[in-house]
Amino acid sequence: MHYWRASLLILSTILCAATSAQSITVVDDEQRTVTLDGPAQRIISLAPSLTELLFVAGAGNRIKGVSEYSDHPPQAQGLPVVGRYDLLDMEAIVGYNPDLIVAWRSGNPQAAVQRLIDLGFNVYIAEPRTLLSIPDQIEKFATLAGTQETGQAASQYFREQLQMLRSRYENSAKVPVFYQVWNEPLISVGGDELINDVIELCGGRNIFDDLGLAPKVSVESVLQRDPALIIASGMDIARPEWLDEWRRWPQLRAVANDALFFIPPDLIQRHSLRVISGALQMCSQIESVRSAPPQ
Q1: What is the 3-state secondary structure (H, E, C) of 269-284?
Q2: What is the pLDDT of residue 295?
Q3: Dihedral sign from CA coordinates of 100, 104, 105, 107
Q4: SS3 of 205, please?
Q5: What three-state secondary structure class fits 26?
């Protein structure tokens, strides 16, 4: 009898260990532990940037629903839309019975996300703000999807590109930059944002790095801080017409330098692998001003 009890105990221990070995655990950006029984097979992505990162991590074929404007890579454009930044289609999301939902803390309705958690779904909450948070997210998504080899290769490429740019510009003379997100109201970027990281990576100095997220600023404050160049984004791939309104102030160094530049917003405002392309453009723009002869 003691022999059989001991055997059963050993067998139970082995089975528990095997089950534990198959489970996957990561910690999200709210320091919540997310545990899956195995690699995610039915994923819902609630932000365009997160959709991009899931594809880069090798989990694109597991995505069953996405948020509005999930337009990259092209394969994402055919996926069902289950919400937008301010409204989630809860019925559609629940209907897909996802084993993983990837949400954006500051870009999704918090009450709706909490409701999904309360319903028992595995919800990973992301809040990427820095350049280095991008490869970290890729690796975590790859872990959750069981595609670690793909994710590791992508994250390593990203880190190598960052290091290349950092090594090239870290000792360069700092160039004051005004990054304009929008014109009415006049919106810039603060010191705790992705674009600020890119500016610093390129050897620039964000003239509003002392402000918070997406600060509203005045024309007077821009004139006072006198940037050497202005970089704008706008809404799409077209250069915004309002960028040239700065020519009304010829005393501004950026105007005197003829340094009114544009970068497509998807290449610089999304936390995705494509920010490397945006960074290369920005570094080139800043360098053109740095190396130009004095006016």
Answers
A1: CCCCCCHHHHHHHHHH
A2: 58
A3: negative
A4: strand
A5: strand
Residue type, 134: I
Distance CA 185, CA 201 (A): 27
What is the per-residue pLDDT across 173-216, written as a single tens digit (0 to 9) for each?
A: 999 999 999 999 999 999 999 999 999 999 999 999 999 989 99
Task: Rounding to the nearest 10 degrees, give the CA dihedral for residues 161, 164, 167, 173.
Answer: -80
Beta strands in the chain (DSSP E): 24-27, 33-36, 43-45, 63-67, 81-84, 87-88, 100-104, 123-126, 175-180, 204-206, 229-232, 260-262
Contact 124, 26 (CB under 8 A): yes
* Domains contained in the chain, CATH given: 25-149 (3.40.50.1980), 158-290 (3.40.50.1980)
| Contact status, residue 221 vs residue 187, Cβ threshold 8 Å | no
pTM of the model: 0.87
Contact yes or no for 57/142 (Cβ under 8 A): yes
